[in-house]
Amino acid sequence: MNIGPYSVEDYMHMVKSFHGNVAPGLIIGGFMVDLARKDFPQDLLYDAISETRTCLPDAIQLLTPCTIGNGWLRVMDFGRFALSLFDKYQGEGVRVSLDSKKVEDWPEIRDWFFKLKSKKEQDANRLRDQIIEAGPEILTARRIQVEGAFLGKKGKGAVGKCPVCNEAYPIKDGPSCLACQGGSPYGKDPRDDAREGKPGLKIVTTD
User: Do residues 31 and 73 both lie within one domain?
Assistant: First the structure.
């Protein structure tokens, strides 16, 4: 059995190297991508959507030209274990999902998918064997038409300098960059006060 042009064993080696471990979701994701691509002409330019940020984006990036970096892969985190490949310009494509009814016939996959067992309780080898044995049998594919608003690559648009941090940002994001509007994951850098001309104050104890 193959996943794309690779044997299952070779694909799992790729997964371990790229993802850090042979996650069950990435093995299933390989079968999902393979199923979605079966009816696509080889010369067709297509984009991809992952409906979860877990595992599936990596399967898509390993097996297709679509990556987050080149803008051909979009992650729309609906929390659904599904992905789509579709014509970049016409929007016609295929959506593949892990079928919640079909996994009922595969106890280890079912318990993993519905989190009926903790990771510690799972039999990793048996789970992997069931996934490989089941292959595309646990998947459902259907034809889709992606709406025009989701087609094509969206550019940054005009770029300006943020008045707060002085870094370049897309002007369409507002009067300052999204980080300076409160979206930054970083704590305040004390050097910011110096850049803004504020005195660097230090809190000390009365001792």
Answer: yes
Among 79, 81, 77, residue whose Cα is nearest residue 96: 81
Burial (CB count within 10 angstroms: exposed 0-12, middle 13-18, buried 19+), residue 103: buried
Give the pLDDT confidence of 149-173 residue by residue, as tens digits.
Answer: 888 777 778 999 999 999 999 999 9
Give the domain-ending residue among 134, 150, 166: 150
Q: How many domains does the chain have?
A: 2
**How far, in Å, are 17, 48, 63, 114 from residue 153 at the CA level?**
29, 12, 20, 35
pTM: 0.83
Question: Does 192 lie in the same domain as 105?
Answer: no
Q: Which two tokens stand for residue 89?
A: 């310009």
